[in-house]
Amino acid sequence: MAAPRHRAAPDHTHPDDVAVETALAALADPVRLTLVRELASSDEWSRSCGSFDVPVGKAALSHHFAVLRAAGLVEQRDEGPRRVNRLRREEFDARFPGLLALVLREG
Asked: What pTM value is reported for the model?
């Protein structure tokens, strides 16, 4: 019998360590902006990676979450077989006051 596979815990970048160019690049992509907007309107830790309605496959979705983690926007943790997410709104707002409020406004 094969040993169970364990996922490595994702690396997280604190917003204090993020350059404004990195934050802006992460938020410039329409898929990532959708993820951030959906997280902003959800309870913390209530959304698994597969619960988002975005037009990309699993590998691309993983990449988008990696970019958001590297930009200090998202924190993830594993809960059983699911990886759940939260928007690091308070920490990100402290680093870049007003930026999230601007991008969360719908057109």
From this structure: 0.88
